[in-house]
Design goal:
Helix content of chain A: 25-40%
Strand content of chain A: 25-35%
Radius of gyration of chain A: 25 Å
Oligomer: homodimer
Shape of chain A: globular
Chain lengths: 479, 479
Amino acid sequence: MANNKKMVEAITGRDEDFAKWYTDIVKKAELIDYSSVKGCMVFRPYGYAIWENIQADMDKRFKKTGVENVYMPMFIPESLLQREKDHVEGFAPECAWVTVGGQEKLAERLCVRPTSETLFCEHYKKVVETYRDLPKLYNQWCSVVRWEKTTRPFLRNSEFLWQEGHTIHETAEQAKEETLQMLKVYEDFYRDTLAIPAVVGRKTEKEKFAGAEITYTIEPMMHNGVALQGGTSHYFGDGFAKSFDIKFQGRDNKLHYPHQTSWGVSTRMIGAIIMVHGDDDGLVLPPKISPIQVVILPIAMHKEGVLEKANELKASLEDKFRVKLDDSDHAPGWKFAEYEMKGVPVRVEIGPKDIEKGQCVVVRRDTREKIFTPIENLSETIEKTLQEIHDAMYERALKNMQEKTHVALTHDEFLQLGKEQGGFIKAMWCGDSECEDILKDETGGVKSRCIPFEEEHLSDVCVCCGKPAKHMVYWGKQY
Amino acid sequence: MANNKKMVEAITGRDEDFAKWYTDIVKKAELIDYSSVKGCMVFRPYGYAIWENIQADMDKRFKKTGVENVYMPMFIPESLLQREKDHVEGFAPECAWVTVGGQEKLAERLCVRPTSETLFCEHYKKVVETYRDLPKLYNQWCSVVRWEKTTRPFLRNSEFLWQEGHTIHETAEQAKEETLQMLKVYEDFYRDTLAIPAVVGRKTEKEKFAGAEITYTIEPMMHNGVALQGGTSHYFGDGFAKSFDIKFQGRDNKLHYPHQTSWGVSTRMIGAIIMVHGDDDGLVLPPKISPIQVVILPIAMHKEGVLEKANELKASLEDKFRVKLDDSDHAPGWKFAEYEMKGVPVRVEIGPKDIEKGQCVVVRRDTREKIFTPIENLSETIEKTLQEIHDAMYERALKNMQEKTHVALTHDEFLQLGKEQGGFIKAMWCGDSECEDILKDETGGVKSRCIPFEEEHLSDVCVCCGKPAKHMVYWGKQY
């Protein structure tokens, strides 16, 4: 059997070969399968269930702020994409183009959406007439396509799943507020749902989104010290409105350009979950999005009463938790390894001796700690344990991020840290993108991650050129 | 303001011009906007919220039968699509083709999925090894593209949203059972959630899905007597397995071909909701999927205590129902018309006099019946009223379907009914598809809808050719 074979080979050690360890988990936890189109993945049931749980949680957070879901077409006519100059320059090189529809060559080729700003603008132009129609706070969950040369499961797919919020406002202030509010939603979600700490802040001019005035970003650090751009929130000013000629009648009865934002996170988040929390035995899933929160494993299943008791436990827990009882005839050792690989936060073992004593054993995935608990307290124990797991996962990730964050005061320090240490580097910067280019070249890929909201004053001069410093910046390599 | 203008013009009468009435509702209830790509629609918040409610309800029904959700790539390489002969013949003529990715012409062109049988087969070939891996019961929610010449909102879009279930089984019996089970899920959903009655049964050879051995269908009737193919469930036998070389090791240790099914419903269902239930004032939404179930309208809003009371009512209802309080400064008459257009099942009016008497007024969208109810009973009254609305909507639709279903015993009767009456025709049939062609030509479009599970014996001979009859068939024109 496929499954049995699988569990015999162990996966690559995390500290031995991080990239191979990652790919092993993606495959052996049955998250993804490759398809015959390069860079396009099959999200298998376990991988997709993680995404469904992420969606459900995040969608509630969006709707609480007044956001409504919509669905835009997946095709963008080339002329529509070209309406905003910076935007098209950023995206046209990696578009997939439909040129034939039915049996006929199309008069104008259609891009499969890489992002949908242009479609939202086209729609807003039609439905926004006066200030009373503002704001519109729209979001869509969909897939987008970016024709990537090198692809990696979850991290860089030619097609991936995401949400893209697009809002339009009466004033610049309201749009800026929305941009920051959604960044905050992402930050809360990463911390409270995914147990992932991150640095947040503003992107430099060089790194911001094509067409944006300001791009905010959330940057979690993977276990190996590499950053992942975990989500972005863009303020567009009235640039798109001008390109698409969207105007509204203001409170002063005059015509004005509205102000826009967009913000998005994608299935890369699943990559972050793997690389922040996973260990040598596989996935370690944050309890709040784990497809299975509790797996019940009956021990000595053939003995009288064991399976009945296991079913009883399941029935008593499943109103409150996502529970699976595995009563298959695999050996307990196989099952232990299987659910560890799949990152299930809590395993409950119940055997004849436990039943005699009126107890069962709760085992934590993250620490392997065994907790003996009276059966009548099981539900409370699990609830408490899931919260403790969440908190401990966050703390471990935070500690890792802190340990791998270093200060560089001089150019030499920066180069040494960038080449040898990995992780985040905090360093002062003059504001010139040329210095970003130089530092990137010299270190083989260290880029500015963000200018945090609260900057420390590390020194007076740019770590690269020695001119007066304008900002403290987080730097690091990225996926 | 756009909204004010809108409510002044009435919509076209339903019995005056059904097609125009339909388009008016789609637009004025703000369900859909057109995009610049022909046949691709924008699902606006109100239209998309209906789809979200449909998804949530249906997804629960699927999962209860053991179905798991997945996500397959949106692109199908041309060679993969061509693996099953009948299938490619059915779909290739209406595919959209990606021929350029990034800056380069692709070596092989990619079809934007019109349906995903081929992708599921490619995946199943990799993950199915023995009978222990069966069944796989997968479903995906996604959009698909079919390059249609003539398009109509919801009914025939170039891109539409749907779910497609794809399952693979050890035996033919299990696959057939699954096919029927999912048809039953659709039938239950139409009846219990959408309040829509329908005829169900098997498609004739001529009308079945490209590549299927058996196609089952659910066929509701619109108010004007025209049928809509509301959902289909296909049994493939081992045809796809053979084309894709999918084999599994059976209980007898020999290799066998598995048996497959697929089944789907789409956003056309929203078209059915409009055309089955709507009236001259707009949408009439089934309570279970209505984005707003209860709208609270304060009367004489400026009077002391009215708004407070309205907010109190809202707070007391929103745990149980989807509630909106409209405290905008539009006139009550405008609001009445607006929420009637949007098909909100129940409107609650509360004014100073009502407050004095400790009562409020509950108004049904479907019948306009006014129910005066003590405020302390409001929640119970609404719950009861929503159920009564659902039941009454179903009964009205059933009555319409019954009144517009006729028996044809002779060729002449068939032609007369087909040309003059519309609706369903019940008539005997010899089993020959040539007779289907003849009847379609003679009547300007009447086709076989299905062979119902319980056939009546109307006569001994085919209504077309007079040869011995094999089946009783439902016939009718379709969208």
